[in-house]
Amino acid sequence: MSAVRENGVIVAIDGPSGAGKSSLTKLLARRLGYIHIDTGAMFRAVALMSKRAGIASDDDAGLAELCRGLEITFVRDGENCRVLANGEDVSREIRSEEIGLLTSAISARKPVREALLIMQRAMGAKGGVILEGRDIGTVVFPDAEVKFFLSASAEERGRRRYLELAARGDQATLEETIAKVIQRDRQDEGREHAPLKQAEDALPIDSTSLSIDQVLTVMENAVRERLVQGDKG
Ligand SMILES: Nc1ncnc2c1ncn2[C@@H]1O[C@H](COP(=O)(O)OP(=O)(O)OP(=O)(O)O)[C@@H](O)[C@H]1O
Ligand SMILES: Nc1ccn([C@@H]2O[C@H](COP(=O)(O)O)[C@@H](O)[C@H]2O)c(=O)n1
């Protein structure tokens, strides 16, 4: 491989809901000194703003108009990142289960995907970046130097999400949470535009019975190996 991009390689982490993408992206970024971009947060910000504006999830013209007037930015806040929509911090509000399901519906719409694709490519082009989402390795950066497809069984992903919600005092049951995870998978895999799927050249990782640390080690080794190949290229 010839010299990598200006700031390093692009790492794509795709996979279904609750597989551990956000957790691993942050940890891996810290290990590598890279920035990380949570593309799901961008779709969530569009969903939240569409809800507030009363735009139906199948109103393509309304969604296109909304995206034209929407600026999404990330502000580093220590280890975390705050998400701003037109300057307003929406980091907390976008995390509800309701917005998660609405996001899955609006992210299927072509104008939304087109608008965010442009933003995501601009954010990642210089490299030295880890992007996590559903279509990073297949659509956003099909030429990413390292691609992972992180998954786990729906039961395990639902269990992890349930524990997270319970810790926040949410009343959801385990069965409901698993059902929502499965519903979101179906919507994300079944949509016409940029569906969730593994890129052919992605390294699959099934984290069902792996700890976060074990997954992190596999990922870090794979990226470092690629960086060494790059130096030789
Ligand atoms: N290997 C693992 N073992 C145990 N728990 C894990 C593992 N990976 C992630 N988790 C936990 O599972 C929950 C979901 O992880 P995370 O939010 O990183 O998933 P995600 O893929 O980004 O989900 P989403 O796409 O819905 O945002 C978190 O509570 C996280 O701590
Ligand atoms: N590249 C992406 C990222 C996300 N989505 C959609 O957003 C929803 C929320 O994502 P989270 O990772 O924050 O849970 C997700 O269910 C997808 O519908 C996407 O389409 N493409």
UniProtKB/TrEMBL annotation:
Report the catalytic activity.
CMP + ATP = CDP + ADP; dCMP + ATP = dCDP + ADP
Stated family: Belongs to the cytidylate kinase family. Type 1 subfamily.
Compartment(s) of residence: Cytoplasm
Q: Which residues belong to any copy of the Cytidylate kinase domain?
A: 11-222
- The residues forming the signal peptide are none
Q: Which UniProt keywords apply?
A: ATP-binding, Cytoplasm, Kinase, Nucleotide-binding, Transferase
One Pfam family, short name please?
Answer: Cytidylate_kin
A Gene Ontology molecular function term for this protein is: kinase activity
Its name, as the record gives it, is: Cytidylate kinase
Q: Which CDD domains match?
A: CMPK
Q: What is its EC number?
A: 2.7.4.25
Enzyme class (EC, first level): transferase
Q: Where does ATP bind?
A: 15-23
Organism source for this protein?
A: Geomonas diazotrophica
Q: Which domain of life is it from?
A: Bacteria
